[in-house]
Amino acid sequence: MSERLDAIIIGAGMGGLSAAIKLASAGLRVRVYEAEDAPGGKLGAEVVDGVEFDTGPSLLTMSSVFSEVFAAAGSTLEDELELVRLDPAFHYIWPDGTELEVRHELGDTLESVREALGPKAEAEYAAFMEYSRESGSRRGRTSSTARRPTSSA
Prior knowledge:
Radius of gyration: 20 Å
Strand order of the largest sheet: 1-2
Mean pLDDT: 86
Largest sheet: 2 strands, parallel
């Protein structure tokens, strides 16, 4: 006789694993199927000539979502992961030599955007960040109107 399952999750990436943890924590019998040799989905690493490179996301955004998953499983994000805050968070280099640093403090990033890409890009980025902040504060609520960021030319 086969095992009775309440849920089957296809894919052991971050989304599939998170769903499986929350469902199992709610008492459901869950099985996760993964096509690759290891879980993680796009989150992985490769070693080339002794140097390890991330092959997927290396930035954790919306850590509160992961905190909720670990809490459902009776743990905490801090107990399970050691998070390392890097500054700058990103350093982009384009083929033409343009460089941009994204930092944790918005003012520092805006200054970097202005220096690298000009005042119009700075205004557009500021508008986008304000839109993102407002959208994040509405998380979990529905709205009948969607607003788009605007920029001053």
